[in-house]
Design goal:
Elements lengths: L2 H16 L1 E6 L1 H5 E5 L2 E3 L13 E4 L3 H18 L14 E6 L6 E5 L26 H9 L8 E4 L10 H10 L3 E6 L6 H8 L3 E6 L5 H8 L4 H14 L4 E7 L6 H13 L4 E6 L13 H14 L13 H10 L4 H5 L11 E4 L4 H12 L4 E4 L11 H12 L3 E6 L5 E7 L1
Parallel strand pairs: 2-6, 6-7, 7-8, 8-9, 9-10, 10-11, 12-13
Antiparallel strand pairs: 1-5, 2-3, 3-4, 13-15, 14-15
Helix pairs in contact: 1-3, 9-10, 10-11, 13-14
Amino acid sequence: MTILETIKSFSQKANARRGRGVYKSCNWIEESVFIDGSNVKMCCIRSMGNDIVPTFFKIDDPIAAAKKLIENKRTLRIANQTNISPCKGCFLLKEQAWMAKDHIHGIAISGFLHCNLACTYCVTYQHDPSDRGVPTLETLKAWYGIGIIRSGSYIDMGGGESTLHREFDDIAAFAFEHGITMHVYTNAVGVSKSLLIGLRGGLANAIISVDAGTAETYRRIKKKDVLHRVWDSITEYVSAAPEAVFVKYIMMDSNRSKLEIDAFLAQARKSGVVRLMPSVNVFQNHQSAGNLSDPMKRSLAYMLKHGRSIGKPTLAETISPQAQAEIETLSHLDDDMLMGDSTRSNWRGQLELAFSNSAVFRDRARSIIAERDSFVIQYPAPIVETSPYQFLQSAIDDARAAGAILNDVKDGNGKSIGLEISF
């Protein structure tokens, strides 16, 4: 390390200790937190392909937890200025001028499993209707009482299907009463009255994953034939607050054909949508490196290009800044250059199945194999020999018995990040 580098390192560490000045950090560290069930975590970027996310502690007493959270943030902030940075490699970590807060601007709430769909790419789905979330309202009230959250803060609700959280309506009522905004991630299979109230009052956003243009592809990915109901719900939400409804399209091999994207855009236009959010499945980021395949970037660019004729498309933050810049540049190419590999009307890309160490994963794999549908099993992090993956082995055995061809999927460093199963 040179003298200048040494001086810079000391300066950043000093700035991080006082929470003011130029150092490496991110918005999560400086002003947000993730409540995963009863656990307090630094962020939910684990759901964006980062295989290491700091878990702080379990909430026992809300007041003590609030004070402990601020202390843990400071410790993490300082650690990120060293060679053993806990957040090293995450594309959200940036070296710039920061100003630490004495309160929390944003809270993400998740960590429950109940959902009314069964999306193949979902990293948390376990088909457990009994798990409708850990009670969180009292923690929020206590934090508001001591000023850790306040008017102008926001709450992200995810899941599972967030509107099915056992306290969703009560949390929404509390938030709106105190000037706290809600960002609600929902599949819009049904309409939430609480979300409608928030939209009409300017205190809520809805982020809705549709992920398909045709009913057939929607059923392949989501396992239910309810696309028509979803668009009815979107139309109702848009009528309440068009600028606050973000219709999301998670781009995958199974839905990136021109046919699918055009059908999606046509329905979005019909429903009055003005805010589109092209995104990617989290594991396509290759464990937080943010790398996307060229066909994926071109499909995203095609949606970005044609989405501009409808309204204001915004690439999701699950896409790295570098990839976003590349996609923006590609969006100015003509359509044949962007979609030349997926223009066939009968084009069916591979499904994506997120691996989990559970019988649910095995059962979902079996249902796809029974339909002789090609798919990719995506690992949440590079598989190591000590991982308990008997359910993965069971799926592999079933696929081989059905006559499938199996190939490893590796990242740029040669680590296994998935398994391709083709019929």
